[in-house]
Amino acid sequence: MLSKTCQYAVRATVYIAIRSADGMKPGLKEVAREIQSPEHFTAKILQTLVRARIIRSSKGPSGGFFVEKEGTDVPLRRILELFRCDHWFQRCILGLDQCSELHPCPVHREFIPFRENLKLMMSSWSIQNLVNEMQSGSFYLGSQDLSRMVIPELKNP
Q1: What dotted CATH number matches 4-87+126-152?
Q2: Tens of pLDDT along 31-60?
């Protein structure tokens, strides 16, 4: 449903937010490994997220990427818009240029409620919501090691 860019951007932001909550600043290699994304691709995504001030970076021996507390309030929709993955909110599901209320495609009217619900969810769910879901232990993002890292009690069942 989402492009790989958007998938990796959301996963990276959540991973960095989780590590930031533990006082850690993961580096590029760690983020790429844990979200299962190619390193060079992850670097471009992180650079865009830093420029948009969704995440921060610091240089030096104790440097890396981090999310400040207020950064976890960022709605998922902002990340989707940043990477131009918000087409689900405007475009025809069949990709027709002329689809509208006046000239609907065969699924136009059925898709409108879905699109509105998706828009509402992406606008109301924040990075913190995803962090909370991860920390509940019921969900994972990327490698299984991430689940164990987020929920230490899973290391020794």
Answers
A1: 1.10.10.10
A2: 999 999 999 999 999 999 999 999 999 998
